[in-house]
Amino acid sequence: MATPLPRDPIADARGNWERAGWSDVAAPMAAVTAIMRTQQLLLARVEGVLKPFGLTFARYELLALLSFTRSGALPMNKASALLQVHPTSVTNAVDRLQDAGLVVRSRHPTDGRTTLVELTREGKALARQATLALNEEVFASSGFPEQDVDDLIRILGRFRRNAGDFTG
After folding, report:
1. Beta bridge partners of 115
2. Which residue in 125, 121, 141, 137 sits closest to 47, CA to CA?
3. What's the gap between Cα 6 and its chain centre?
4. Angle 36-41-45 from CA coordinates, rounded to 5°
5. Which helix (H) or strand (E) element contains residue 61?
6. Which helix (H) or strand (E) holds 143?
7. Residue 2 has what pLDDT?
8. What's the pTM value of the predicted model, to 2 decimals?
9. Which of 44, 119, 28, 126 shows the shortest CA–CA distance to 74?
10. What is the dihedral of CA 111, 112, 115, 117, to 10 degrees?
11. pLDDT in tens, 91-125
């Protein structure tokens, strides 16, 4: 990890916005920038835990999604929708995971136009190992005070719903 800065650059940026005459958007700019920086920090932690497993977060997400299905398989287009990523991203992740022997592609039994992606025994085992490592090294000590976690989920969930991420 890099040496911490002596001051918060996002707070400094907010001050710059205010001095430039943009006081009405200075706080939202700081909030958006802080969220984006927080995402970078969290992703670096997660990727660091997943690296020994030969996984990126995107590939882990697909393995985890498949591990929670009854059959260990999903149509690729459904995986794309549930992961909220472009179909090309799922195709790329499946290619890498298939090369590693963690998933296989197969034809849907009733819809010849649909390709299933299915977890292999090795993929299921690796998904479990990686999840246990993430639980222990990231999720159990996220860096967020326990009393803030539900508030964060609620605030970010409301933002995501209002942005059209989901309707429920």
Report:
1. 107
2. 137
3. 30
4. 145
5. helix 57-67
6. none
7. 79
8. 0.89
9. 119
10. 70
11. 999 999 999 999 999 998 888 788 999 999 999 99
